[in-house]
Automatic annotation (TrEMBL):
Origin: domain of life: Bacteria
Domain MDMPI C-terminal intervals: 137-235
Organism: Pseudonocardia petroleophila
Name of the protein this chain belongs to: Maleylpyruvate isomerase family mycothiol-dependent enzyme
Keywords: Isomerase
GO cellular component: plasma membrane
Molecular function per GO: isomerase activity; metal ion binding
Ranges for domain Mycothiol-dependent maleylpyruvate isomerase metal-binding: 6-125
Pfam families in UniProt: MDMPI_C, MDMPI_N
Length: 243
C-alpha cells in the first residue's frame, strides 16, 4: 500500500467534508470537540510529525510552526500532509527519529498520520450525518496499525484481554485474505500480542473492515458488528482501549 498517497487522499476527503460545514459543529465521537478543533488537531498533528522528522527529536505540539489554520482552513489542511512527506523525503525515510514508541524510521510517521486521518475523517462524517466510505484494504491496514500500537504501548493499567484470552477479528470483505483476520491474545504481563490468521478465540467479531475499524476504535456501537462467543471479551477490550 502507498501510505503517502493514501495520506494525501484522506486529507483531501476530510477537507471536502468540512469545507462548507459549520466550524462549531459538535463531534460526538470526540467529546468536547467541534469540527474546528478536529481539523486543527489533524493538521497540526501532521505538521508536528513533520517537525519531529526534520529535527529527529520530540517537540511540543503547541510550538509547531504554522500549527493554526488561519482564514484559509482548507488550504492549510491540504498543505499539512505535504509538510510531512517533504520532511520524510528531506531526512530520508529510513533515518531513525523520535516516536512515542522509541526511535523508528522517519517513514513510520506517514502510516501513523494516515490512520489518524482515516479515523478522524470518520469522526467528521458521523458528526455531519453523512456516509463514511473507506476501501477495505485501507480500513484493514488501519486496524492492523492500531492493534500494533496497542501491543507496543502497554501502560500498566487494566489489561484489555486476560492472559491467554484470544479475540478474533474477521473482516468479511472479499479479497483481503489473511490481511483481513487478526488474532489478538492477552499476555502474562498485562499486554497483548497479535498476528494475522484464522483461529479460535473466546470471542470472534465479524464485520466489514470498515465496521471493524470503527467499532474497535469506538466510533460506532459494537452492535454494528457480529459477536460470536463471549461478548464480554469485546466489551472489556473496548472499555480498556481508546484511540
Amino acid at each position: 500500500m502507498d501510505h503517502a498517497a493514501a495520506l494525501v487522499d484522506q486529507n483531501r476527503l476530510l477537507a471536502d467534508l468540512v469545507r462548507d460545514a459549520p466550524a462549531d459543529t459538535a463531534v460526538p465521537t470526540c467529546p468536547g470537540w467541534t469540527l474546528q478543533q478536529l481539523v486543527r488537531h489533524v493538521g497540526r498533528g501532521d505538521r508536528w510529525a513533520a517537525t519531529i522528522v526534520r529535527t529527529g527529536a520530540f517537540v511540543d505540539p503547541r510550538e509547531v510552526a504554522g500549527g493554526k489554520p488561519g482564514d484559509d482552513v482548507v488550504g492549510w489542511l491540504h498543505e499539512s500532509p505535504r509538510t510531512l512527506l517533504d520532511a520524510v523525503d528531506g531526512t530520508g525515510p529510513d533515518v531513525p527519529v523520535w516516536t512515542f514508541l522509541g526511535p523508528r524510521p522517519a517513514a513510520w510517521w506517514i502510516r501513523r498520520r494516515l490512520h489518524e486521518s482515516t479515523v478522524h475523517r470518520a469522526d467528521a462524517a458521523l458528526a455531519l450525518g453523512v456516509p463514511y466510505d473507506i476501501e477495505p484494504e485501507l480500513a484493514a491496514d488501519g486496524l492492523s496499525e492500531w492493534i500494533a500500537l496497542l501491543a507496543e504501548r502497554s501502560d500498566g493499567g487494566d489489561p484489555p484481554l486476560a492472559a491467554g484470552t484470544v479475540l478474533h477479528l474477521h473482516a468479511t470483505d472479499d479479497g483481503l485474505g489473511e490481511a483481513g483476520e487478526w488474532l489478538v491474545r492477552g499476555t502474562d504481563g498485562g499486554g497483548v500480542e497479535w498476528e494475522h490468521g484464522h483461529g479460535k478465540g473466546a470471542a470472534a467479531v465479524r464485520g466489514t473492515a470498515a465496521d471493524l475499524l470503527l467499532a474497535v476504535t469506538r466510533r460506532v456501537p459494537a452492535s454494528r458488528v457480529e459477536v460470536l462467543g463471549d461478548a464480554a471479551v469485546l466489551d472489556t477490550w473496548l472499555e480498556r482501549t481508546s484511540f
